[in-house]
Design goal:
Elements: H1 2-33, H2 37-50, H3 55-68, H4 71-81, H5 88-101, H6 105-118, H7 123-135, H8 139-152, H9 157-169, H10 173-186, H11 191-203, H12 207-215, H13 225-237, H14 241-250, H15 259-271, H16 275-288, H17 294-307, H18 311-324, H19 328-341, H20 345-357, H21 363-385
Helix pairs in contact: 1-2, 2-3, 3-4, 3-5, 4-5, 5-6, 6-7, 7-8, 8-9, 9-10, 9-11, 10-11, 11-12, 12-13, 13-14, 13-15, 14-15, 15-16, 16-17, 17-18, 18-19, 19-20, 20-21
Protein backbone atom coordinates (compact mmCIF):
# COMPACT_ATOMS: atom_id res chain seq x y z
CA UNK A 1 0.00 0.00 0.00
CA UNK A 2 2.81 2.37 0.93
CA UNK A 3 4.56 1.54 -2.37
CA UNK A 4 1.38 2.28 -4.32
CA UNK A 5 0.94 5.59 -2.51
CA UNK A 6 4.54 6.52 -3.22
CA UNK A 7 4.03 5.69 -6.93
CA UNK A 8 0.96 7.92 -7.20
CA UNK A 9 2.78 10.69 -5.34
CA UNK A 10 5.58 10.61 -7.91
CA UNK A 11 3.09 10.61 -10.80
CA UNK A 12 1.27 13.56 -9.22
CA UNK A 13 4.49 15.50 -8.76
CA UNK A 14 5.53 14.96 -12.37
CA UNK A 15 2.07 15.91 -13.61
CA UNK A 16 2.05 19.02 -11.41
CA UNK A 17 5.49 20.04 -12.63
CA UNK A 18 4.45 19.64 -16.27
CA UNK A 19 1.29 21.59 -15.58
CA UNK A 20 3.26 24.39 -13.93
CA UNK A 21 5.67 24.45 -16.87
CA UNK A 22 2.84 24.76 -19.37
CA UNK A 23 1.18 27.37 -17.20
CA UNK A 24 4.36 29.45 -16.87
CA UNK A 25 4.99 29.31 -20.64
CA UNK A 26 1.44 30.42 -21.37
CA UNK A 27 1.74 33.17 -18.80
CA UNK A 28 5.02 34.34 -20.34
CA UNK A 29 3.47 34.44 -23.81
CA UNK A 30 0.50 36.43 -22.53
CA UNK A 31 2.84 38.87 -20.76
CA UNK A 32 4.83 39.28 -23.98
CA UNK A 33 1.68 39.95 -25.98
CA UNK A 34 0.72 42.57 -23.39
CA UNK A 35 4.20 44.14 -23.83
CA UNK A 36 5.22 43.25 -20.28
CA UNK A 37 8.58 42.08 -21.57
CA UNK A 38 10.48 42.25 -18.28
CA UNK A 39 8.06 39.94 -16.48
CA UNK A 40 8.00 37.56 -19.44
CA UNK A 41 11.81 37.50 -19.56
CA UNK A 42 11.96 36.53 -15.88
CA UNK A 43 9.79 33.47 -16.55
CA UNK A 44 11.83 32.35 -19.56
CA UNK A 45 15.11 32.83 -17.72
CA UNK A 46 13.74 30.84 -14.78
CA UNK A 47 12.86 28.05 -17.22
CA UNK A 48 16.34 28.26 -18.77
CA UNK A 49 17.90 27.80 -15.33
CA UNK A 50 16.09 24.45 -15.17
CA UNK A 51 16.87 23.45 -18.78
CA UNK A 52 19.63 25.44 -20.44
CA UNK A 53 19.47 23.32 -23.62
CA UNK A 54 15.86 24.21 -24.45
CA UNK A 55 16.19 26.30 -27.61
CA UNK A 56 12.59 27.48 -27.44
CA UNK A 57 13.24 29.04 -24.02
CA UNK A 58 16.39 30.71 -25.38
CA UNK A 59 14.51 32.08 -28.38
CA UNK A 60 11.72 33.56 -26.27
CA UNK A 61 14.16 35.03 -23.77
CA UNK A 62 16.09 36.60 -26.65
CA UNK A 63 12.91 38.15 -28.08
CA UNK A 64 12.01 39.64 -24.68
CA UNK A 65 15.52 41.03 -24.15
CA UNK A 66 15.45 42.49 -27.67
CA UNK A 67 12.15 44.26 -27.02
CA UNK A 68 13.54 45.62 -23.75
CA UNK A 69 16.53 47.06 -25.62
CA UNK A 70 18.93 44.78 -23.75
CA UNK A 71 20.91 44.00 -26.88
CA UNK A 72 23.82 42.39 -25.09
CA UNK A 73 21.64 39.75 -23.48
CA UNK A 74 19.52 39.32 -26.63
CA UNK A 75 22.61 38.64 -28.75
CA UNK A 76 23.81 36.10 -26.20
CA UNK A 77 20.59 34.09 -26.53
CA UNK A 78 20.24 34.42 -30.31
CA UNK A 79 23.84 33.36 -30.96
CA UNK A 80 23.13 30.14 -29.04
CA UNK A 81 20.24 29.17 -31.32
CA UNK A 82 21.56 30.43 -34.65
CA UNK A 83 22.87 27.06 -35.82
CA UNK A 84 19.56 25.23 -35.37
CA UNK A 85 17.37 24.75 -38.45
CA UNK A 86 14.17 25.43 -36.53
CA UNK A 87 15.33 28.66 -34.87
CA UNK A 88 17.98 30.30 -37.08
CA UNK A 89 15.51 32.52 -38.96
CA UNK A 90 14.33 34.30 -35.80
CA UNK A 91 17.92 34.51 -34.60
CA UNK A 92 19.30 35.98 -37.85
CA UNK A 93 16.46 38.49 -38.28
CA UNK A 94 16.91 39.71 -34.72
CA UNK A 95 20.70 39.81 -34.92
CA UNK A 96 20.55 41.73 -38.21
CA UNK A 97 18.21 44.32 -36.63
CA UNK A 98 20.34 44.61 -33.49
CA UNK A 99 23.57 45.15 -35.43
CA UNK A 100 21.88 47.73 -37.64
CA UNK A 101 20.63 49.62 -34.57
CA UNK A 102 24.16 49.49 -33.16
CA UNK A 103 25.51 50.91 -36.46
CA UNK A 104 27.51 47.73 -37.01
CA UNK A 105 26.55 47.71 -40.69
CA UNK A 106 28.96 44.95 -41.88
CA UNK A 107 27.50 42.49 -39.35
CA UNK A 108 23.94 43.53 -40.23
CA UNK A 109 24.80 42.89 -43.90
CA UNK A 110 26.29 39.51 -42.96
CA UNK A 111 23.09 38.25 -41.32
CA UNK A 112 20.81 39.64 -44.01
CA UNK A 113 22.96 37.94 -46.63
CA UNK A 114 22.56 34.66 -44.74
CA UNK A 115 18.79 35.15 -44.71
CA UNK A 116 18.80 36.05 -48.43
CA UNK A 117 20.80 32.91 -49.24
CA UNK A 118 18.42 30.77 -47.17
CA UNK A 119 15.28 32.35 -48.63
CA UNK A 120 16.27 33.53 -52.14
CA UNK A 121 12.69 34.18 -53.24
CA UNK A 122 11.92 36.57 -50.40
CA UNK A 123 12.29 40.19 -51.64
CA UNK A 124 12.44 41.62 -48.12
CA UNK A 125 16.05 40.54 -47.57
CA UNK A 126 17.20 42.04 -50.89
CA UNK A 127 15.50 45.32 -50.01
CA UNK A 128 17.06 45.28 -46.54
CA UNK A 129 20.48 44.67 -48.05
CA UNK A 130 19.90 47.54 -50.48
CA UNK A 131 19.14 49.87 -47.57
CA UNK A 132 22.21 48.71 -45.62
CA UNK A 133 24.58 49.08 -48.57
CA UNK A 134 23.09 52.51 -49.25
CA UNK A 135 23.67 53.45 -45.62
CA UNK A 136 27.27 52.31 -45.98
CA UNK A 137 27.63 54.41 -49.16
CA UNK A 138 28.24 51.37 -51.37
CA UNK A 139 25.91 52.32 -54.23
CA UNK A 140 27.30 49.65 -56.56
CA UNK A 141 25.92 46.99 -54.19
CA UNK A 142 22.79 48.85 -53.11
CA UNK A 143 21.38 49.30 -56.61
CA UNK A 144 21.31 45.61 -57.70
CA UNK A 145 19.82 44.54 -54.37
CA UNK A 146 16.96 47.02 -54.68
CA UNK A 147 16.52 46.00 -58.32
CA UNK A 148 16.27 42.32 -57.34
CA UNK A 149 13.76 43.19 -54.60
CA UNK A 150 11.64 45.03 -57.15
CA UNK A 151 11.95 42.16 -59.62
CA UNK A 152 10.60 39.75 -57.00
CA UNK A 153 7.90 42.19 -55.89
CA UNK A 154 6.91 44.72 -58.61
CA UNK A 155 4.53 46.44 -56.15
CA UNK A 156 7.36 47.38 -53.78
CA UNK A 157 7.01 51.17 -53.56
CA UNK A 158 9.84 51.38 -51.00
CA UNK A 159 12.32 49.90 -53.50
CA UNK A 160 10.89 52.11 -56.27
CA UNK A 161 11.59 55.20 -54.16
CA UNK A 162 15.11 54.05 -53.23
CA UNK A 163 16.04 53.21 -56.82
CA UNK A 164 14.65 56.57 -57.98
CA UNK A 165 16.78 58.41 -55.43
CA UNK A 166 19.85 56.60 -56.75
CA UNK A 167 18.89 57.52 -60.32
CA UNK A 168 18.43 61.18 -59.36
CA UNK A 169 21.77 61.28 -57.54
CA UNK A 170 23.33 59.86 -60.72
CA UNK A 171 21.52 62.45 -62.92
CA UNK A 172 19.50 59.69 -64.59
CA UNK A 173 16.35 61.78 -64.45
CA UNK A 174 14.37 60.04 -67.19
CA UNK A 175 14.80 56.67 -65.49
CA UNK A 176 13.72 58.23 -62.20
CA UNK A 177 10.66 59.79 -63.89
CA UNK A 178 9.59 56.42 -65.21
CA UNK A 179 9.98 54.61 -61.89
CA UNK A 180 8.33 57.33 -59.83
CA UNK A 181 5.30 57.43 -62.10
CA UNK A 182 4.99 53.66 -61.69
CA UNK A 183 5.16 54.23 -57.94
CA UNK A 184 2.38 56.81 -58.08
CA UNK A 185 0.24 54.49 -60.20
CA UNK A 186 0.62 51.88 -57.46
CA UNK A 187 0.02 54.33 -54.62
CA UNK A 188 -1.47 57.65 -55.75
CA UNK A 189 -1.70 58.88 -52.13
CA UNK A 190 2.02 58.46 -51.50
CA UNK A 191 3.28 61.91 -50.52
CA UNK A 192 6.96 60.96 -50.40
CA UNK A 193 6.86 59.68 -54.00
CA UNK A 194 5.08 62.87 -55.13
CA UNK A 195 7.69 65.08 -53.42
CA UNK A 196 10.52 63.11 -54.99
CA UNK A 197 8.92 63.38 -58.43
CA UNK A 198 8.54 67.14 -57.94
CA UNK A 199 12.21 67.37 -56.95
CA UNK A 200 13.21 65.37 -60.03
CA UNK A 201 11.24 67.70 -62.31
CA UNK A 202 12.71 70.73 -60.52
CA UNK A 203 16.34 69.73 -61.09
CA UNK A 204 15.47 69.22 -64.77
CA UNK A 205 14.03 72.77 -64.84
CA UNK A 206 10.59 71.40 -65.71
CA UNK A 207 8.91 74.03 -63.58
CA UNK A 208 5.35 73.52 -64.86
CA UNK A 209 5.52 69.83 -63.90
CA UNK A 210 7.08 70.72 -60.54
CA UNK A 211 4.16 73.00 -59.71
CA UNK A 212 1.60 70.40 -60.83
CA UNK A 213 3.08 67.77 -58.50
CA UNK A 214 3.36 70.08 -55.51
CA UNK A 215 -0.13 71.46 -56.07
CA UNK A 216 -1.51 67.91 -55.98
CA UNK A 217 -0.52 67.56 -52.31
CA UNK A 218 -0.62 71.15 -51.09
CA UNK A 219 -3.76 70.57 -49.01
CA UNK A 220 -2.45 67.35 -47.49
CA UNK A 221 0.93 68.57 -46.34
CA UNK A 222 2.47 71.59 -44.67
CA UNK A 223 5.53 72.08 -46.87
CA UNK A 224 8.95 72.34 -45.29
CA UNK A 225 10.99 75.46 -46.04
CA UNK A 226 12.82 73.46 -48.71
CA UNK A 227 9.64 72.69 -50.63
CA UNK A 228 8.16 76.16 -50.07
CA UNK A 229 11.32 77.56 -51.65
CA UNK A 230 11.12 75.04 -54.50
CA UNK A 231 7.48 75.89 -55.13
CA UNK A 232 8.18 79.61 -54.98
CA UNK A 233 11.06 79.46 -57.43
CA UNK A 234 9.16 77.19 -59.83
CA UNK A 235 6.18 79.57 -59.79
CA UNK A 236 8.51 82.49 -60.43
CA UNK A 237 9.87 80.74 -63.53
CA UNK A 238 6.35 80.34 -64.97
CA UNK A 239 5.45 83.96 -64.22
CA UNK A 240 3.10 83.32 -61.28
CA UNK A 241 4.85 86.07 -59.37
CA UNK A 242 2.37 86.77 -56.58
CA UNK A 243 2.01 83.07 -55.77
CA UNK A 244 5.78 82.74 -55.87
CA UNK A 245 6.13 85.52 -53.30
CA UNK A 246 3.60 83.78 -51.04
CA UNK A 247 5.61 80.54 -50.92
CA UNK A 248 9.00 82.24 -50.75
CA UNK A 249 7.86 84.33 -47.78
CA UNK A 250 6.65 81.13 -46.08
CA UNK A 251 10.05 79.54 -46.65
CA UNK A 252 11.69 82.23 -44.51
CA UNK A 253 9.90 81.21 -41.30
CA UNK A 254 12.54 79.85 -38.90
CA UNK A 255 14.85 79.31 -41.86
CA UNK A 256 18.50 78.86 -40.88
CA UNK A 257 19.81 79.48 -44.40
CA UNK A 258 17.59 82.14 -46.01
CA UNK A 259 20.09 83.38 -48.62
CA UNK A 260 18.44 81.95 -51.73
CA UNK A 261 14.88 82.70 -50.62
CA UNK A 262 15.82 86.39 -50.27
CA UNK A 263 17.46 86.31 -53.70
CA UNK A 264 14.37 84.79 -55.32
CA UNK A 265 12.14 87.30 -53.54
CA UNK A 266 14.34 90.11 -54.84
CA UNK A 267 13.86 88.74 -58.37
CA UNK A 268 10.10 88.56 -57.85
CA UNK A 269 9.80 92.11 -56.61
CA UNK A 270 11.96 93.34 -59.48
CA UNK A 271 9.46 91.77 -61.88
CA UNK A 272 6.70 93.66 -60.02
CA UNK A 273 8.84 96.82 -60.31
CA UNK A 274 8.81 97.22 -56.53
CA UNK A 275 12.46 98.14 -56.44
CA UNK A 276 12.69 99.23 -52.80
CA UNK A 277 11.52 95.80 -51.64
CA UNK A 278 13.74 94.10 -54.20
CA UNK A 279 16.75 96.07 -52.87
CA UNK A 280 15.85 95.05 -49.32
CA UNK A 281 15.93 91.36 -50.26
CA UNK A 282 19.18 91.69 -52.24
CA UNK A 283 20.75 93.28 -49.16
CA UNK A 284 19.40 90.44 -46.99
CA UNK A 285 20.81 87.87 -49.42
CA UNK A 286 24.17 89.66 -49.20
CA UNK A 287 24.15 89.78 -45.39
CA UNK A 288 23.15 86.10 -45.13
CA UNK A 289 25.18 84.92 -48.10
CA UNK A 290 27.97 82.37 -48.14
CA UNK A 291 27.44 80.87 -51.59
CA UNK A 292 29.34 81.45 -54.87
CA UNK A 293 26.39 83.61 -56.00
CA UNK A 294 27.43 86.67 -53.97
CA UNK A 295 28.63 88.49 -57.08
CA UNK A 296 25.13 88.18 -58.57
CA UNK A 297 23.46 89.76 -55.53
CA UNK A 298 25.84 92.75 -55.59
CA UNK A 299 25.56 93.12 -59.35
CA UNK A 300 21.75 93.07 -59.37
CA UNK A 301 21.55 95.47 -56.44
CA UNK A 302 23.98 97.80 -58.22
CA UNK A 303 21.82 97.70 -61.34
CA UNK A 304 18.76 98.87 -59.38
CA UNK A 305 20.79 101.58 -57.65
CA UNK A 306 22.20 102.78 -60.95
CA UNK A 307 18.73 102.96 -62.51
CA UNK A 308 17.58 104.98 -59.51
CA UNK A 309 20.63 107.28 -59.83
CA UNK A 310 22.07 106.13 -56.51
CA UNK A 311 25.44 106.01 -58.20
CA UNK A 312 27.67 106.02 -55.11
CA UNK A 313 26.13 102.81 -53.78
CA UNK A 314 25.94 101.33 -57.26
CA UNK A 315 29.69 101.81 -57.72
CA UNK A 316 30.35 100.24 -54.33
CA UNK A 317 28.25 97.15 -55.18
CA UNK A 318 29.79 96.80 -58.63
CA UNK A 319 33.21 96.79 -56.95
CA UNK A 320 32.08 94.07 -54.53
CA UNK A 321 30.64 92.05 -57.41
CA UNK A 322 33.99 92.26 -59.20
CA UNK A 323 35.83 91.13 -56.07
CA UNK A 324 33.69 87.99 -55.94
CA UNK A 325 33.92 87.34 -59.69
CA UNK A 326 36.12 89.14 -62.17
CA UNK A 327 33.53 89.45 -64.92
CA UNK A 328 34.83 91.96 -67.53
CA UNK A 329 31.34 93.42 -68.02
CA UNK A 330 31.49 94.73 -64.46
CA UNK A 331 34.43 96.92 -65.52
CA UNK A 332 32.22 98.39 -68.23
CA UNK A 333 29.42 99.01 -65.71
CA UNK A 334 31.89 100.60 -63.29
CA UNK A 335 33.08 102.80 -66.13
CA UNK A 336 29.52 103.92 -66.92
CA UNK A 337 28.62 104.63 -63.28
CA UNK A 338 31.92 106.44 -62.64
CA UNK A 339 31.50 108.38 -65.90
CA UNK A 340 28.23 109.75 -64.59
CA UNK A 341 29.15 110.15 -60.89
CA UNK A 342 32.73 111.47 -60.71
CA UNK A 343 33.91 114.83 -61.95
CA UNK A 344 37.34 113.30 -62.30
CA UNK A 345 36.87 111.45 -65.58
CA UNK A 346 40.18 109.61 -65.23
CA UNK A 347 38.38 107.11 -62.95
CA UNK A 348 35.90 106.22 -65.69
CA UNK A 349 38.70 106.17 -68.30
CA UNK A 350 40.61 103.67 -66.14
CA UNK A 351 37.64 101.26 -65.90
CA UNK A 352 36.84 101.62 -69.61
CA UNK A 353 40.48 100.92 -70.47
CA UNK A 354 40.55 97.79 -68.32
CA UNK A 355 37.41 96.59 -70.07
CA UNK A 356 38.86 97.22 -73.54
CA UNK A 357 41.93 95.13 -72.58
CA UNK A 358 39.77 92.32 -71.19
CA UNK A 359 38.95 89.08 -73.02
CA UNK A 360 35.28 89.93 -73.40
CA UNK A 361 34.34 89.44 -77.07
CA UNK A 362 31.35 91.77 -77.36
CA UNK A 363 32.43 94.03 -80.20
CA UNK A 364 29.58 96.53 -79.65
CA UNK A 365 30.51 97.06 -75.99
CA UNK A 366 34.20 97.28 -76.81
CA UNK A 367 33.56 100.01 -79.41
CA UNK A 368 31.34 101.87 -76.94
CA UNK A 369 34.10 101.82 -74.31
CA UNK A 370 36.73 102.96 -76.80
CA UNK A 371 34.50 105.81 -77.97
CA UNK A 372 33.90 106.92 -74.36
CA UNK A 373 37.63 106.81 -73.62
CA UNK A 374 38.29 109.01 -76.65
CA UNK A 375 35.49 111.42 -75.74
CA UNK A 376 36.52 111.70 -72.09
CA UNK A 377 40.16 112.28 -72.94
CA UNK A 378 39.12 115.11 -75.26
CA UNK A 379 36.79 116.42 -72.57
CA UNK A 380 39.62 116.43 -70.01
CA UNK A 381 41.98 118.13 -72.47
CA UNK A 382 39.38 120.82 -73.27
CA UNK A 383 38.75 121.51 -69.58
CA UNK A 384 42.45 121.72 -68.79
CA UNK A 385 42.97 124.26 -71.56
CA UNK A 386 40.17 126.48 -70.26
CA UNK A 387 41.40 126.59 -66.67
Amino acid sequence: MNKLFAFFLVIFSISNALSQGIKSEQEALELYNNQEFGAALSIWENNISGDSTNLYYLEQAGLCAYRLGNYSKAKEYFLKIGNDAAFFKTAYISLANIYEDQESIPKAIKYNNMLKDSFPDNPIYYRKLGALYLKAGIISEAFPKYAQALSLNPNDVISIKALSEIFIANSQHKEADSLLNIGLALDKENISITLLLAKNYYVQKLYDSTVVQLNSIVRRLDFSNYYNKMMGYALLQIDSVDQAIFYLEKSLVDESNPEYAHYYLANAYEVKKEFDIASFHYNKAISEGTSPSMHTYHRNLARIQKDEHNLKDAIDNYKWAYKYKEDPLLLLFLGQASDEYYKDKSIAINYYSQYVKSDDNNATYKKYAQDRIQYLKEYKHFNNQNK
